[in-house]
Write a structure and sequence with these properties.
42% helix; single chain; alpha/beta; 12 strands; 457 residues; globular
Length: 457
């Protein structure tokens, strides 16, 4: 099938027939989607057998081979030479999917990414970026279109391979204001038809009703992919977290995407690094089975074992992290049933720990009152994992010792008192920015309470 002298992809072929992507899922004669539901068959085809060879997945609409390890560019070193070195190593070792956004590093991520990738042949990489118009002042068509056009300039490309509606899930009013009422989604659909966007999708955090609304209109929009937060803890415990979430477990998100014929890009496979800071008794359970494997390797192998995953994003701002992750995916060894059972057990145990579900994305920053929100939450979670928190009853024999241990550790982790939780003024400016839908002022109040001197009668 040719179109304008180029290979016609499946989406264009179906459109000429008048068949949407949702109908295509049912039309098995057009494409054997059933094969993708069989994990063992899928992995046997797509997992290389040679040591040191990157694992790839096939993008079903175009046939593109996408590295199962994707490079998340949100927290890059702000140094072009360092970024160049990371990108060079990644491409040399088979990584070809690079994910950025206009809001990352205040726009500098797109610049650094574009400069680094421009030094390589265009066919060596796929770029993903986003419509990051979460701020109401960017909801107009002109402002959103300007953001879209600026991404091309910063990334130094004439087409964007994977383009996303960024962080849907703020409720239907937000979804309509950002993408529907202003006409920007219709514009992006036309840009896909024109080829300036090769694949169109969305990333999801928050209100699952937005996620359902978009996927339920797959016939109309023909989403090429969907980016979801998925890891062995959120698989069945995401919707049980505190705060003001109306989220769904990753199991629901993944299964709905699979049933809709939409492949998944995974973010937060390590839960923002939280798996590297698990309680020691949980880490020991993993080490007992594989003494040489890091918790990151366990988490990546778990995600990569699912057949409808197109790529798994990892923010790698240090060469040693990149090298370790490349090794994990070259090739990826799927988890066994015994390993899956162990991770499910650990997830059940972790769900009982009263941690704050912060992934340190820093979307909430800067705080107008100077609070270092991610650092406060990071130490609080560390104290929970080390069983310093929750504090025992004040009448307990070890109460004062544990209380002082928490205070000393907190002051060491955050030496600048101006950044402490007690500086929060409950202005709630951070609430709409948090993709995890954490009730941030309430959680900061927990820290303030834990630091407060004991009341005297």
């Amino acid at each position: 099938m040719k179109k304008n002298g180029q290979q016609m992809d499946r989406r264009h072929f179906l459109r000429q027939l008048g068949i949407g992507a949702g109908s295509a899922v049912a039309a098995m004669a057009l494409e054997p989607f059933g094969a993708f539901a069989k994990k063992d068959a899928y992995l046997s085809v797509h997992t290389p057998h040679l040591s040191g060879e990157m694992t790839y997945r096939t993008q079903r609409g175009s046939g593109e081979q996408i590295s199962l390890l994707g490079f998340g560019m949100m927290r890059l070193p702000n140094d072009q030479d360092e970024v160049n070195a990371l990108v060079d190593y990644a491409i040399e070792h088979g990584v070809n999917y690079f994910d950025t956004a206009p809001m990352y590093m205040g726009g500098q991520s797109e610049v650094l990414t574009g400069n680094a990738l421009a030094r390589h042949p265009r066919e060596k990489f796929f770029i993903a970026t986003k419509m990051s118009n979460q701020n109401r002042r960017l909801w107009s068509f002109d402002e959103s279109k300007r953001m879209y056009e600026t991404s091309f300039e910063r990334l130094r490309v004439d087409h964007i391979d994977y383009y996303l509606l960024h962080s849907i899930g703020g409720g239907m009013d937000s979804l309509k204001g950002r993408f529907l009422d202003n006409g920007i989604l219709e514009f992006l659909l036309r840009e896909r038809e024109a080829g300036r966007i090769r694949h169109l999708g969305f990333s999801y955090h928050g209100d699952v009703r937005d996620f359902d609304w978009l996927l339920d209109r797959q016939l109309e929009y023909q989403w090429d992919f969907c980016q979801i937060q998925m890891n062995f803890l959120d698989w069945r415990h995401a919707s049980m977290r505190g705060g003001r979430r109306t989220d769904a477990d990753a199991e629901y998100l993944y299964n709905k995407c699979e049933k809709s014929g939409v492949q998944c890009v995974v973010m937060e496979p390590l839960r923002g690094g939280a798996f590297g800071r698990m309680a020691q008794e949980l880490t020991d359970q993993l080490l007992a089975m594989h003494p040489d494997d890091s918790t990151a390797r366990w988490a990546f192998r778990w995600v990569g074992s699912y057949p409808n995953i197109l790529t798994t994003l990892s923010g790698m701002n240090r060469m040693e992290h990149l090298e370790e992750n490349v090794k994990t995916f070259s090739p990826l060894q799927p988890c066994t049933e015994q390993e899956n059972q162990l991770l499910a057990s650990i997830a059940d145990q972790m769900s009982g720990f009263p941690t704050i579900p912060c992934t340190t994305c820093e979307y909430c920053m800067p705080c107008p009152y100077g609070v270092n929100i991610p650092a406060n939450f990071a130490y609080y979670n560390e104290a929970v994992n080390e069983h310093i928190l929750p504090l025992p009853d004040p009448t307990a024999e070890n109460y004062q010792e544990r209380k002082q241990q928490f205070v000393d550790g907190f002051q060491k982790a955050l030496p600048d008192e101006a950044t402490w939780a007690k500086k929060c003024q409950d202005c709630e400016e951070c609430l709409s920015k948090c993709p995890q839908q954490i009730r941030i002022p309430n959680q900061l109040a927990r820290i303030v309470e834990a630091l407060r001197p004991p009341r005297r009668n």
